[in-house]
Structures are given as structure tokens and as C-alpha cells.
Automatic annotation (TrEMBL):
<dbReference type="InterPro" id="IPR036390">
    <property type="entry name" value="WH_DNA-bd_sf"/>
</dbReference>
<dbReference type="InterPro" id="IPR000524">
    <property type="entry name" value="Tscrpt_reg_HTH_GntR"/>
</dbReference>
<dbReference type="Pfam" id="PF00392">
    <property type="entry name" value="GntR"/>
</dbReference>
<keyword id="KW-0804">Transcription</keyword>
<keyword id="KW-0238">DNA-binding</keyword>
<protein>
    <submittedName>
        <fullName>FCD domain-containing protein</fullName>
    </submittedName>
</protein>
<dbReference type="Pfam" id="PF07729">
    <property type="entry name" value="FCD"/>
</dbReference>
<feature type="domain" description="HTH gntR-type">
    <location>
        <begin position="9"/>
        <end position="79"/>
    </location>
</feature>
<dbReference type="InterPro" id="IPR036388">
    <property type="entry name" value="WH-like_DNA-bd_sf"/>
</dbReference>
<dbReference type="InterPro" id="IPR011711">
    <property type="entry name" value="GntR_C"/>
</dbReference>
<dbReference type="InterPro" id="IPR008920">
    <property type="entry name" value="TF_FadR/GntR_C"/>
</dbReference>
<keyword id="KW-0805">Transcription regulation</keyword>
Amino acid sequence: MARSELRPQKTAMLVAQRIVEGINERGNQIGDRLPPERVMLEEYGVGRGTLRESLRFLELQGVISLKPGPGGGPIVRQPDGEALSTAITLLLQFENAPFRTVVEARTALEPMMARLAAERISDEQIAELKHSVDHMRANLDDTTIFVEMSRVFHDTVARGSGNAIFGYLIHALLDLIDGSAVGMEYSRRSRAATCDIHEKIYLAVADRDPVSALAAMQEHIDAIWRYEEKHYPEVLDTPIAWGTVG
């Protein structure tokens, strides 16, 4: 009984892999429509239930969207970091890991991201960094803008590193430790200090100075650690749970 129950799930996963292979082989672009259900059923030699399970899995992973109605069907999408964020959250929840786990990971990873960004970042991404710093400084009394621009800044540095893993990983970690989700607040003085160090990192990256970029980001992340350890130790010790993040 157990073996027969597991087989459809395994088959659905294999079909999902074949669907992704087909996307690559055909050279499908974002927004392209995939073959209709009757064609897929014949091509993959599976039942309708298995195929729909495969498509639903790919939809959850952000690979496709399923458009209902006549003329609908699976449409290719660009996967984002949402599935990764959810997976990491669930893994950490079942490990009973606290929020400080995420802060420790940022401490280890983000300085390296800044160093690589200074070597690889595009001019367009440098402009994004500058915009986030300028917009944050012009709106220091708006907490919502502060959180949003801080996230844009760190996301841009991660993407600017030229390492796709860093880009998706920091996005997932920021989902986990978003201050608005776990009850952390920052004074205007702290927001101004954050803006200053963001500008320091931006200038180092824009100057293509990897040593200074690494040091400035290390200074920034260490300051975040000290602030949160001083003001929110109970939050850092709170176990991560899916419903409390994102």
C-alpha cells in the first residue's frame, strides 16, 4: 500500500522535471504558453491526475502559472525566491532554530557579497543603490520607506555580486528577519546611522573598491547585530515559525 501511494508522487516529480527540460529545449521565454493538456498527456504517457499534480508543483515553485478557461493553460514564469524562503523557513522551524540564526548567516555572507559587488556590479545596479540611499535619507521619518529601501539596498548588493545563489539567498534571509514581521523597530537616530553606512558601502562599491566594500558591510552587519542583541534579545531567541515571517 505504501509503495503504491508513493509511486504517483514520484512519477509526478519526474514529469515535472521533463516539463522543465522541455521548456529549456524549446527555448521558451517568460510568458510563453506551454503545449495544451492533451498534447502533454500523450507526450509524457501519464494520466490527467498525475500531469495536473506535476503542473501544480511547478506552479508552486513559480516556474509556471496556470491560466484558467478557454485559451488558458500553463504559462512560463520567472521563478523568484518565494519557494526558497518558504523551504528555509520550514527547515529552520523544524530545527527549532531562533531568529539569531539568520543574523549569524548574514554576518558571514553579506561582507563577501559586498566585496564581489565592488568587482562585478553593473552601472544600473549602482544607480539602484544610490536611489535607495537617497530615498531613505529623504524619508527618515517614514519607517515603511526605511524598511523598503533597506531591503532594496541589500537585495541590490546581493544581486550585484554576480552570484545567483547569493541573490536568492539574501532575499530569503531578508524575508525571515524582516523587522516589521518580528516586532523590531529602529529610532530615527538608528535610521540615520543606517543611511550613513549604506552610503559608505555604496561609495566603496561604486569606486570598485572590494576591500573597503567588505569592511563597510562588515561594520554595518556588526552594528545590526549589536543593536538587535541590545534591544531585542528576546526576538533573536524566538524560534522561527512559518506564520511569523514573510
